[in-house]
């Protein structure tokens, strides 16, 4: 059995949640080649709907936003139709769907995108990362720096993607401003070396993230808009500086985002609890916290100590479609099969056993 704090209901914007668990966003590479999620994707998310708040894998708002093979999009009519089936499956099984909007920026390769163009980024600085392509691993190329006008275009793409998510039947969207992708790149001094209004100072580096959040909230409602951040995560070759630099950047960013009254703040947390506490002090709505390496007995810790309202689950939920029942009853958990994380097909995706066979 787990802490009673996990089983308290919560109002999240327009949603009534029965408990404090959620599905964390996890890339699974099962979309069709054109980025449309198919029936298998709908089955996967429907299986995990008991988690209540189901946050989808990263979903590109445009062709430029794609970084990996067979990741889903949410910018064409076909994408909307595919996500409609996912939303239906989640709703039919009692859950609520938020689609995570992820523009990868420089973490891409022309081989993996529909138009095969050079990636875009805040500055023309390569991530120097290995990117898996159909021909095997290749280094991410030097990206093209976005002009100020193009930045406005990207904001428009996010707005359109959010509207498309709602048109598909999703309950909201999560803005991915974390884990080394485009919005996070604007926050990191070693990736953003601009000298205009989108670079240089703390305020300027935060501007793009804030403008994306404002545009989406204006389009679909702040009560259907969440955002994810990952302070000091060095993913994708990012370096945000020392502890004090990170704290200064994110205290400003979160303080400004708090004014928008977004429905939640999702923190992929590296361990600076002082910083996390400062977010809690200013954030007006729900806070979600994910920690790397968190074990079963630590799932409720941040809720119990007041740092979080919701505990999203990653690998536990991936390997256990009925993770809610297993945690409620103290049942053993399935082990994760790492070899099938991105392999495609049903194996390691929709075939994990449940306590009660379907």
From TrEMBL:
Gene: nemA
Cofactor entry: FMN
PANTHER family associated with the record: NADH OXIDOREDUCTASE-RELATED, NADPH DEHYDROGENASE 2-RELATED
Classification via CDD domains: OYE_like_FMN
Class in the EC hierarchy, top level: oxidoreductase
EC assignment: 1.-.-.-
Lineage: Bacteria, Bacillati, Actinomycetota, Actinomycetes, Micrococcales
The protein's name in its UniProt record: N-ethylmaleimide reductase
InterPro entries reported in the protein's UniProt record: Aldolase_TIM (IPR013785), OxRdtase_FMN_N (IPR001155), Oye-like (IPR045247)
GO terms for MF: FMN binding; oxidoreductase activity, acting on the CH-CH group of donors, NAD or NADP as acceptor
Cellular component GO terms, alphabetical: cytosol
Organism, scientific name: Microbacterium azadirachtae
Domain NADH:flavin oxidoreductase/NADH oxidase N-terminal intervals: 6-334
Keywords of the record: Oxidoreductase
Protein family according to the UniProt entry: Belongs to the NADH:flavin oxidoreductase/NADH oxidase family.
Highest taxon listed in the record's lineage: Bacteria
């Amino acid at each position: 059995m787990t802490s009673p704090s996990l089983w308290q209901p919560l109002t999240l914007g327009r949603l009534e949640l029965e408990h404090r668990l959620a599905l964390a966003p996890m890339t699974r590479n099962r979309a069709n080649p054109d980025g449309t999620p198919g029936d298998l994707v709908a089955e996967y998310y429907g299986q995990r709907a008991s988690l209540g708040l189901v946050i989808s894998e990263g979903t590109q708002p445009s062709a430029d936003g794609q970084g990996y093979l067979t990741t889903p999009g949410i910018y064409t009519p076909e994408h909307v139709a595919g996500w409609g089936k996912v939303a239906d499956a989640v709703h039919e099984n009692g859950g609520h769907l938020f689609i995570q909007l992820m523009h990868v920026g420089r973490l891409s390769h022309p081989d993996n995108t529909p138009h095969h163009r050079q990636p875009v980024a805040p500055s023309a600085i390569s991530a120097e990362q290995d990117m898996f392509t159909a021909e095997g691993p290749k280094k991410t190329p030097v990206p093209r720096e976005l002009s100020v006008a193009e930045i406005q275009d990207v904001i428009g793409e996010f707005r359109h993607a959010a509207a498309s998510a709602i048109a598909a039947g999703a309950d909201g969207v999560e803005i991915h401003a974390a884990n080394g992708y485009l919005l996070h790149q604007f926050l990191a001094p070693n990736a953003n070396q601009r000298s205009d209004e989108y670079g240089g100072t703390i305020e300027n580096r935060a501007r793009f993230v804030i403008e994306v959040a404002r545009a989406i909230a204006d389009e679909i409602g702040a009560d259907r808009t969440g955002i994810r951040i990952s302070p000091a995560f060095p993913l994708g070759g990012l370096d945000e500086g020392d502890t004090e630099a990170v704290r200064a950047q994110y205290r400003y960013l979160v303080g400004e985002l708090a004014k928008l009254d977004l429905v939640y703040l999702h923190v992929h947390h590296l361990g600076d609890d002082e910083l996390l506490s400062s977010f809690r002090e200013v954030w007006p709505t729900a806070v979600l916290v994910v920690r790397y390496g968190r074990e079963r007995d630590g799932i409720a810790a941040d809720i119990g100590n007041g740092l979080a309202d919701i505990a999203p689950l990653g690998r536990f939920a991936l390997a256990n479609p009925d993770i809610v029942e297993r945690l409620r009853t103290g049942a053993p958990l399935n082990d994760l099969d790492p070899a099938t994380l991105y392999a495609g097909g049903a194996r390691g995706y929709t075939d994990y056993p449940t306590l009660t066979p379907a």
